[in-house]
Design goal:
GO terms for molecular function: methyltransferase activity. This is SAM-dependent methyltransferase. Keywords: Methyltransferase, Transferase. By secondary structure, this protein is of the alpha/beta class. It folds into 3 domains: about 80 residues, no CATH class; about 190 residues, Rossmann fold (3-Layer(aba) Sandwich), CATH 3.40.50; about 120 residues. Helix content is about 35%, strand content about 25%. Strand 8 and strand 9 form a beta hairpin. The longest helix is centred in the first third of the chain and has 21 residues. Bound molecules: S-adenosylmethionine (SAM). S-adenosylmethionine binds next to helix 5, helix 7 and helix 9.
């Protein structure tokens, strides 16, 4: 074994990773990937690999082949080259989003960028692929080994310097717009601990105090935050962006004062491209009005970013209630920012009356949606199910303060 792959015997994850980077390791992962692709089950796969490669390589090779297969739908061809652990794969974002972030951060100038908490190196690689030299910092030796391995495997190793360190201290030393000798930085705090999501930003690692300090001291900074981040936390002059894919928020970002161009932004990955909605200043709340022929459910990123009023104005729609993010208008919207449903009936919420109405309409299958109501959608859907051949969407919400059910056409708009 060469010097480069000599392994410490105290950290199995690190030694496995170094073993997998050797020529024997590469061949072992290829063999494991072949068995995996044939659909061979875990026990058979492992016993064959043990026979062929020995016990030391069999388990790590099988595990990496399994993680690469899991990464392939998102990472495409890169997945076959990536080094991953289950935890870092979970933390790594989508590469097309990492590329979009890197392009925007670098748009106003190149120069080295600090990746503060580099994990498996997804952001580091995206920045390096856009031409930046990157100082990738992590306190976890496995993360550092992964970033080194991935930068090399994806052909950008020469632009990446991986170093150990505590990001809290690194950011404490930031001044005059510079951190870790870089005038731009990406910070993606770990927001899970012991397998659980940490809802309190003060419990992220590094914690909110480091996020706030970085945004204060380094204008060309980008921080990934939890989608549920309280707007109150967003410092003045910092842009907050929520990104949605397929109707779910996939990331929320804070853009430092040197890269911010607006107050709030909602971004939608749509038909392979990005659609954006921006507001400067706060557009406030949309007006409310009676339920009309169509109900529109805004994308969750529109709601989280506080831009419902913009979509309402565009659709000539009103809120069904000042406190509820359902919109209503006379016409179908055909807008990527909302899902639309034709409203067939509006009635005060009453289980017996609702069930009777659905029976008369021949509705058997019901999908329940709710907002501003304590009902449990799945259990209500079971209670409303009947023998009829038709389907309906029942929306339980408040209309002008009153608990209301809207029976809608499933085909939507
Ligand atoms: C969410 S992950 C980053 C994922 C990464 N952006 C990627 O694309 O793969 C957070 C990383 O920050 C590191 N980290 C957390 N607290 C840290 C600290 N105080 N100092 C250095 N690294 C830290 C963790 O070890 C972890 O690798």
């Amino acid at each position: 074994m060469s010097e480069a792959v000599r392994v410490p015997d105290d950290d199995p994850a690190l030694s496995n990773l170094r073993l997998l980077r050797t020529a024997e390791g590469t061949a072992a992962v290829q063999r494991a990937a072949g068995l995996f692709a044939e659909g061979v089950d875990l026990l058979t796969g492992l016993s064959r690999l043990r026979e062929e490669l020995g016990p030391e390589l069999a388990g790590p090779a099988w595990e990496l082949a399994r993680l690469r297969a899991r990464a392939r739908p998102v990472f495409g061809a890169d997945a076959d080259l990536l080094f991953l652990t289950a935890e870092t794969l979970e933390q790594a974002g989508r590469p097309e989003l990492a590329d979009r972030r890197a392009a925007r951060l670098l748009a106003d100038g190149g120069g080295p960028v600090a990746d503060l908490g580099c994990g498996a190196g997804t952001d580091t690689v995206a920045l390096a692929r856009r031409g930046a030299s990157v100082v990738a910092i992590d306190r976890d030796p496995v993360a550092r080994e992964l970033t080194t391995a991935n930068a090399a495997a994806l052909g950008v190793g020469s632009r990446v310097r991986v170093v150990g360190g505590d990001v809290v201290d690194v950011v404490d030393r930031a001044e005059n717009g510079w951190v870790a000798s870089c005038a731009a930085a990406v910070l993606d705090p770990a927001r899970r601990a012991d397998g659980r999501r940490q809802l309190d930003p003060d419990r992220w690692s590094p914690p909110w105090s480091t996020v706030a300090r970085l945004l204060e001291r380094v204008p060309r900074a980008l921080v990934k935050v939890a989608p549920g981040l309280d707007h109150e936390r967003v410092p003045d002059g910092v842009e907050a962006e929520w990104v949605s894919v397929g109707g779910s928020i996939v990331e929320a970002l804070l853009w430092g004062t040197g890269v911010s161009t607006t107050w709030r932004r909602t971004t939608l990955l749509h038909d392979g491209g990005f659609l954006e909605l921006t507001a400067e200043p706060d557009p406030g709340t949309a007006p409310a009005g009676p339920v009309r022929g169509w109900l529109h459910e805004p994308d969750p990123a529109v709601i989280r970013s506080g831009l419902v009023a913009l979509v309402a104005a565009d659709l000539e729609a009103t809120l069904v209630d000042p406190t509820i993010a359902y919109l209503t208008s006379d016409a179908t919207a055909g807008s990527p920012w909302v899902r639309s449903f034709r409203v067939d009936e509006v009635l005060p919420f009453n289980l017996k009356k609702l069930r009777a109405l659905l029976r008369t309409r021949g509705v058997g299958r019901v999908t329940v949606k709710k907002r501003g109501s304590a009902i449990e959608p799945e259990s209500l859907a079971r209670q409303l199910r009947g023998p009829g051949p038709e389907s309906a969407v029942v929306v339980v919400t408040r209309v002008a303060g009153a608990p209301t059910a809207l029976v809608c056409d499933v085909s939507g708009g």
